[in-house]
Amino acid sequence: METRALGSSGLEVPVIGMGTWQTFDVHGDAGVAGARRVVDVALAAGTRFFDSSPMYGAAERVLGRTLEGRRGDALVATKLWASTDVEARQQAARALQWFGGHVDLYQVHNLVGWTERLDLLESLRERGALRAIGATHYKPSAFAELCRVMRSGRIGAIQVPYNPRERSVEREILPLAEELGLGVVVMRPLGEGALARRAPSAARLAPLREYGVETWAQALLKWILSDRRCHVAIPATSRPEHMRDNAAAGEPPWLDEDARAYVARLAGE
Ligand SMILES: NC(=O)c1ccc[n+]([C@@H]2O[C@H](COP(=O)([O-])OP(=O)(O)OC[C@H]3O[C@@H](n4cnc5c(N)ncnc54)[C@H](OP(=O)(O)O)[C@@H]3O)[C@@H](O)[C@H]2O)c1
Predict the structure, then answer these.
(1) Strands 12-14 and 3-5
(2) Main-chain phi, psi angles of 170, to 5 degrees
(3) Is the distance from the beta carbon of residue 212 to the nearest atom of ligand 1 less than 6 Å?
(4) For an engineered disulfide with 1, which of 74, 139, 154, 250 has Cβ 3.0 to 4.6 Å away?
(5) DSSP 201
């Protein structure tokens, strides 16, 4: 698995990570056991970057349980999603308990109360409870504000959506991230699954085989990572076989401009 510096955040990340929205919001022993099987495959394949949030129901707690006994093998990215300081402090206390007292990348989810949330994250960093600070948003209408946060000098990474059907970040966000040396975590790499499910025929995928692409999900992930301004894509999955499929996209050769344009055309059909 290729690794990249997550901008100037100080973290070195595998190019394929994993999200937990919906897929890790599971309950009971059977639910946790299923999530653990996905994490087993992820870690074996070198996919050691896991993203979560208090917004994702049980996902943070479940991720913590799947990492019991092997927390040091993983990089954990989670978020504060709180409208008051009290709630934010409670979220951080819970997350630190679930993740062995340490979060690798702590992000402000959807920029909610970002000035105050960054105050808390900076104080946690001073105490050594986290390594890098980030901010996330999924909506192009919030990107102007995200640019203000990026220029504040207070964060080391951003998390934004990017796939062949959602390219708004190409206008301002990716160029600014590159200029400022910020890490870029890519959410929704498979279009919340909708893009992944519309796989072209094997014949249409065949020209991508020389780039190491065997499946449509791999084509979509390589499309993202071939843009060197993106450092880690975090597809979510509930299935070990999909995790294996996704992790296999984390190696060169990367797509050239023609191959990238071809994937974008396939995604638009
Ligand atoms: N969506 C948002 O607005 C948002 C916002 C902030 C952060 N994030 C973060 O970004 C992460 C990723 O985004 P996302 O979960 O919205 O969507 P995504 O990763 O683009 O898509 C996830 C969907 O793709 C399917 N899938 C995964 N691998 C596949 C494969 N190899 N072949 C076919 N289908 C596959 C999964 O189904 P199976 O379970 O069947 O594999 C799942 O339904 C989130 O989990 C979260 O951590 C998302």
Answers:
(1) antiparallel
(2) -65, -25
(3) no
(4) 250
(5) P
* Section 206-229 average pLDDT: 98
Residue nearest to atom 42 of ligand 1 (CA): 193
pLDDT at 269 over 90: no
Q: What is this structure's pTM?
A: 0.97
Are 178 and 207 contacting, i.e. CB atoms less than 8 angstroms apart? Answer: no
Measured by CA distance, the residue closest to atom 48 of ligand 1 is 187
Q: Which two tokens stand for residue 17?
A: 């990570």
Residues 6 or more apart in contact with residue 37 via CB below 8 angstroms: 240
Note the maximum CA span of the chain. Answer: 56
State the DSSP H helix or E strand holding residue 171, giving kind and residue range, or none if neither: none
pLDDT in tens, 103-139: 999 999 999 999 999 999 999 999 999 999 999 999 9
Work out which ligand 1 atom sits closest to the CA atom of 191: 20
Q: Which residue has the tokens 């890519």?
A: 186
264 closest CA partner among 212, 213, 224: 224
Provide the β-strand partners of residue 78. Answer: 106
DSSP β-bridge partners for residue 75: 49
Sheet of 18-19, strand order: 18-19, 49-51, 75-80, 103-108, 130-136, 157-161, 183-187, 232-233
The helix (H) or strand (E) run that includes residue 95 is: helix 85-98
With 0-12 CB in 10 A as exposed, 13-18 as middle and 19+ as buried, what is 269?
exposed
Local structure of residue 88 (DSSP, 8 states): H
